[in-house]
Design brief:
Length: 244
């Protein structure tokens, strides 16, 4: 048996990951079940991550946990907001694109996004966890072919930096607003990386995502979790399945 983590869906791209003595919180803009408060009450070292300043990813309210937080690891576009600059300087790490930070048993590497801010690769407790932020292949049906081509090019360019990425778990958008194109980004991402489990995000109000029959490359199927209700929780065994 490998190690396990417990993962709780907060809302939109918000996720909580609890390992052995550590807690990671990603893009907690709203937490209807109060899962973060409960996790902090259980103790352990807590790290908050925010991929960018958009309202559906960043809430200044996370500052209220400062006394129980080791570090806020924030995309540096948040520094442009007055609310962003109020985070305690001694506990805040600002990351640009292709940046990194290491300390206290955690290593963070940032990548570019195809929207605003960054995506993150976090290494902690023997786990490698990727959170895409708003990095995705944003193909919109109501935009011109030219704009969609630019979006695709930007995505493919960034994917080159992620080719072969090895991670135990990846959080990636499968956005219902993209309709039939909602799987383009996560499909390409899963096919070109070596991620071992996928949890989807950024699809509030749309039916639960499911991988299409050709989503995975043959023989490369991995466990998938597409929560749609805040507070949904799974345990993931390293190299294994999501279980409830
Ligand atoms: Zn977003």
């Amino acid at each position: 048996m490998g190690q396990t983590v417990t993962i709780t869906y907060l809302l939109n791209s918000g996720y909580l990951v609890e390992g052995d003595g550590w807690t990671l919180v990603f893009d907690d803009y709203q937490d209807p079940p109060g899962a973060v408060e409960q996790a902090l009450a259980r103790g352990g070292r807590c790290f908050f991550f925010v991929s960018h300043a958009h309202f559906d990813h960043f809430s200044p309210e996370i500052r209220r946990f400062a006394d129980r937080t080791e570090r806020y690891i924030l995309s540096d576009d948040i520094k442009g907001l007055a609310e962003g600059r109020r985070f305690p300087a001694d506990k805040t790490v600002w990351l640009g694109k292709y940046d990194g930070w290491e300390g206290e048993g955690i290593k963070v590497t940032s990548f570019d996004s195809t929207d605003q801010g960054t995506s993150f690769l976090v290494e902690i407790g023997g786990w490698r966890i990727f959170h895409a932020g708003d990095f995705n292949w944003w193909h919109w049906y109501d935009e011109s072919d030219e704009d969609n081509k630019l979006a695709k090019n930007g995505f493919m360019k960034q994917m080159k930096k992620l080719d072969g990425l090895d991670a135990d778990l990846a959080f990636f958008p499968a956005d219902g607003r993209l309709w039939d194109a909602r799987s383009l980004g996560p499909k390409e991402f899963c096919r070109r990386t070596a991620v071992k489990a996928l949890a989807t995000m950024h699809s509030v109000g749309y039916p639960r995502w499911q991988p299409e029959p050709d989503f995975f490359a043959p023989g490369r199927e991995i466990p998938v979790w597409a929560p749609d209700t805040p507070g949904e929780r799974r345990t993931l065994t390293q190299g294994g399945e999501f279980t409830s």
